[in-house]
Amino acid sequence: MVESQQDAKLLDLNSTVNLILHFMKESNLLNSMDTLIQETGVHFPALVSQDFIESVRRGQWHQVLKQMQHSARMEKGLVQGVYEQIVKELIIEREYVLAQQILREQSVVLSESVYGENNQLVHGEGALLQELWDLTQLRDPPPSIQSVFKRQGFKTLQESREHCASQIEKSLSKDQMPANRLLQLLALGLEYENQLKGGKMKTTVMKGAAHQQFTPYVQKIITHKLFSGSFKISTLSISNNCEHMVLGGHDGLIEVWSYEHMSVDLKLPYQQQDLYMLHSKCVLSLAFSKDDKILASADSSGVIRVWKFAEGKKLREIEVQGGGSECGISSMVFATGNSQLIAGCMDKSIRVYGLKSGSMLKQFKGHDSFIQSIQLLPGQEQFLLSSAEDGVILLWNLQGGEPRKVETPAQKLRKELVLNCFRINPSNPKEVLISHRCGSTYLIDLDTSQVLQEYQTSQSKEEEVISASFSHDGSHVYAFSSTKNLYIYNKKTGKLVSLLVVPSATSLSDELSSMVVASLGESETMVMHSMGELFKLE
């Protein structure tokens, strides 16, 4: 009985906050309103003013955009309709940059599926965003009212604006709110209480959402960590079972985190006792064995340490012959049933070590610059792909023979473009994703070096791809750009599926170190990090 009384008081308080919020909105006390929302966590289904509808009808989009920030929570279909109208009018005026900016800012809203009357699908997931983005690419012939509004069949701008405004009015007429202002506010408070108690909500646009199919790509940021002090992330690795994430620091410290909770895992006995795996120099590379029982770490001085992961116990230490900064280990992979460790070195060589003996079994030389990354071909682990700082990619047969040079798009175009990274398609080892420091990411055929698909970021000359990767099932491509946009493309068609904007307060665009995709069952996640910041997305 005590709990139900407390719940009732909470509901009363929330309703009171709602009334105050409405008063603040009507009095144009927007900053105070935002502060109260942040401090109480209370939101409300506000009324759309008649002024807002008239602004839509007149095409006063600067007023509409301003009011959209503080006005009612309309049905998603209506919100999409307003933004669709604005973007299409900008396209007709050939304001492509502004149109693309709005699409980026509202990508989450415009990507959502919307259901109308009788649970009929109005827009599939990502369909409207893709349609509008494609329209911003129109140049010849120039866009016209008829071509831009072809789907709706509108012949004039006024006709399209009137339709947009009337849809909003039609939705509002269903509410049957009393004319008296006080009764309106009280009705809203009662509706909010009903929603908190699990009552039936009026909005029906998301009915049938449970029938949507699984989406194999990340859609939102769920964790943001900001690091301060001496600890700076130099590299990270996620265990194959997605239970742990290991961070390697510039100071040599290695921290093991719970990947689910995104915090230091104190369930591990050694970390519970404040004991951590360590190097004396900056940790440059981390690698898990396929069964996650062994962790290998390597530093800038060429020291490799092999750990029994569950106990944090050092099993073996391998020192690259020669020592010094040129023997740093930049990339590692386990091979041959976890009995061997392959290391890409800053002395331009690739070395194969036996884990039992710690001895170097093989050494491969062919690069003219230090190794950036090495990856085994999925299902064909006798082949290894390596990239170097000068942009050269080589394909090695680990059983012997000379390496084969893989021609990159930059080399084909005879352009001096920085190679950021490459990725092998996990579901097709013959497909390789090439990320140059330019406005596009390329999918190439490993055998022929032919470009199979190009994934373009935008028309902006300033925007450059920093890192790119495949989704875990290989069906989508992620590309993170210098303007802090995370583009998600359909791998096969090259079409933009979704767009996620990383918060502007971050420094990731300047110093993004890596982008790691992880998957467990149907759940896909991603981690992006710079030296001082880390984001987890799902």
Tell me what the structure shows.
With 538 residues, this protein is of the alpha+beta class. Helix content is 27%, strand content 33%. It contains 14 helices and 31 strands. Strands 4, 5, 6, 7 and 8 form a five-stranded antiparallel beta sheet that branches. A four-stranded antiparallel beta sheet has the order 3-31-30-29, with no helix packed on it. α5 (76-92) runs antiparallel to α6 and α5 packs antiparallel against α10. It is elongated. It starts with a helix and ends with a strand. Residues 1-13, 175-188 and 199-214 have low confidence and may be disordered.
List the helices and strands and how they pair.
Layout: H1 2-26, H2 30-40, H3 50-58, H4 61-68, H5 76-92, H6 96-105, H7 107-111, E1 114-115, E2 121-123, H8 127-135, H9 145-148, H10 157-173, H11 181-196, E3 221-226, E4 233-238, E5 244-249, E6 253-258, E7 263-264, H12 269-272, E8 277-278, E9 283-288, E10 294-299, E11 303-308, E12 313-319, E13 329-335, E14 340-345, E15 349-354, E16 360-365, E17 371-377, E18 380-388, E19 393-397, E20 404-406, H13 409-413, E21 419-425, E22 428-436, E23 440-445, E24 451-456, E25 465-470, E26 476-481, E27 485-490, E28 496-501, H14 508-511, E29 514-520, E30 523-529, E31 533-537
Antiparallel strand pairs: 1-2, 3-31, 4-5, 5-6, 6-7, 6-8, 9-10, 10-11, 11-12, 13-14, 14-15, 15-16, 17-18, 18-19, 19-20, 21-22, 22-23, 23-24, 25-26, 26-27, 27-28, 29-30, 30-31
